[in-house]
Amino acid sequence: LELRQYLNQTVISRSENPIEYWDKLKVAYPTLYSCALKYLSIVITSVPSERLFSKAGAIKAERRSRLSGDRFN
């Protein structure tokens, strides 16, 4: 029911802040509000994944050779 009501709403403009938008709707759509906050609060990084994993590999292999694979996870 909540999802159907939300889908009948007009689409927000691209210039509108989605966090503020959902803050206004949290009473009307509490379940969707929780989902929106979960996915809108994902941390974004500019570090390329290759570089990130390369650094992690260097820590395990060179600097921390005593760490076993199961402890590193």
UniProtKB/TrEMBL annotation:
Pfam families xrefs: Dimer_Tnp_hAT
Signal peptide boundaries: none
Residue intervals of the HAT C-terminal dimerisation domain: 2-68
GO MF annotation, one: protein dimerization activity
Record protein name field: HAT C-terminal dimerisation domain-containing protein
